[in-house]
Amino acid sequence: MIANQVQLVPCQIEPFLTASQGHINVASRTKRRQPYDPNKPHDRRATEFNAGIAGHVAAIEIDDPYEAGGKIVAIRSTRDDPLGGLHARKMIDEAQYQAGRAFQRHFETAARGVGAIDFTKEAVDGGKIYEGTTDAQMKASDALTVAYAKLGMNGQIIVNEVLVHSMTRRQMAEKRGLTGKKWEEYMGMRFRECLDCLALVYGFAMEKR
What we know:
Blueprint: E1 42-43, E2 57-63, E3 71-77, H1 82-88, H2 94-111, H3 135-164, H4 169-175, H5 181-201
Parallel strand pairs: 1-3
Antiparallel strand pairs: 2-3
């Protein structure tokens, strides 16, 4: 044998040993934890749901209350949130979803503490100023006036039914004396048209030329 020659020994993978052989099963070792990635949101979703609510929940990424700048994945209920449900099931796009949320924020802000206001009427200079109305409420009211004008009468009704009163497509159809899946799909189509209109109003989409 040549001096200083290194003898190569092939690697050998030992088989899994069982506890009956006096050894711990290698396969039962705990999986090594992955290093923490601050850019990846921590998933805190429940893994099991009751059968009654399984179809009314969706994942959402939110700010981590325990870590500045961190994100977590949580579960939101969509039972009383038709807009969120449509978005979770990919039945509307991001622009439509954000437009619907913008409308809801404006409606909630404008209607807070000012009583019954008809946002469908055009604002008039020198009109009645409601006591206690904030600048935010007045801006929201102006935005709603523009949105309602673009939607038209039928669009106003449909948007209020879904975004304000949380009605489903079936409830919207039944309200009009219509039953059946085709009518439900028709109401859903009309609502998506309204969201397209709102997306243009709020600047989440550009008008096609």
